[in-house]
């Protein structure tokens, strides 16, 4: 399948990270699915299983499970529509329009605004490009949503069934910090870094802290993790996430990681920049063009210059990462995009530019090999992981692990 067709589709599976620092109530998940199966007249609940201790994978309902649409249209923004397809409820700030006769308790059909042109509070049917993403029960009145004079909060529509037929399982089922909606490749990425007790770890592009908290959790709060992001508000998000997850081994900093190595640094404890050879492990989850996100509903316009700008930053970040890594240390490079320039070609550039860098297996493998003919030999292609629609004999991947977002992971030692 062509990548451009693949990215607009919703994955057939959804994944969550279970916080192993907190108890996980699996009975609650089973009960929720049983209750939904009664509501939807389904014969079986969807399959679900755990990969390792901390990754929950859920499948779709059977093909014949459905709900009748109501004919009453509610328009939500594109990001919310993508979340509904992944089993989320609709939160009030994302609602753009609903017809004046809508009342709380009514069944409504949820549409995503693909053009981003729907005006908040619109009373007439929206005639822009929109996509049906699910049906649910309206929990708030029009007055509460638009006319109350305060920013509305909370669940506005309780989703009954997304158009993707994924179950309605989401973070609201558990207390904050217990369960996190996270794509499988992102979960795998932290497994590849494999944070352990007493290791000094640098997360160079850390916000909002999804992988940082995973690293803290897997080390049982016993690693020393420094998490950097260049945007101050985003650093606050890292802090909040660590607090909610009970992760206490992370020190966040606001800094530009393209400048985070300096010979003049006094040491790790003084904050960035850091001296060369400081870290046992480094995660470079690079800013990227994000073209692997699925489902991509809004229209993404990106100029060639903008695409090229990502590789420039990625190379600067990589240069700092290589300097900061201790000899014998592990560096994991990842992106959530599908372009060759930001993935295989970037790895090939790094290996040529830094002769002290060695490509090592990015294990555990759940994605396919790197693409052929774009800078990596077959021996190198099998060491990296590419999550995408491609099927490659070098490493065949079960659909359950392939049908997620587009992503790339490479691991190096120095
Ligand atoms: C792909 S996101 C990281 C996601 C994060 N690792 C997680 O799993 O939650 C990339 C992040 O890099 C940050 N960023 C971009 N350029 C940066 C730079 N020069 N230094 C530090 N952070 C940067 C962005 O603000 C963004 O939050």
TrEMBL record:
Signal sequence interval, chain numbering: none
Family annotation (InterPro entries): MeTrfase_RsmB-F_NOP2_cat, MeTrfase_RsmB-F_NOP2_dom, PUA-like_sf, PUA_sf, RCMT, RsmB/NOL1/NOP2-like_CS, SAM-dependent_MTases_sf
Keywords: Methyltransferase, RNA-binding, S-adenosyl-L-methionine, Transferase
Catalytic site positions: 336 (nucleophile)
Highest taxon of the lineage: Eukaryota
Binding site for S-adenosyl-L-methionine: 205-211, 229, 256, 285
The SAM-dependent MTase RsmB/NOP-type domain, residue ranges: 110-414
Heme listed as a keyword: no
UniProt keyword RNA-binding, yes or no: yes
GO biological process terms held by the UniProt record: RNA methylation
GO MF assignments: RNA binding; RNA methyltransferase activity
Family from the record: Belongs to the class I-like SAM-binding methyltransferase superfamily. RsmB/NOP family.
Protein name per Swiss-Prot or TrEMBL: SAM-dependent MTase RsmB/NOP-type domain-containing protein
Organism name: Manduca sexta
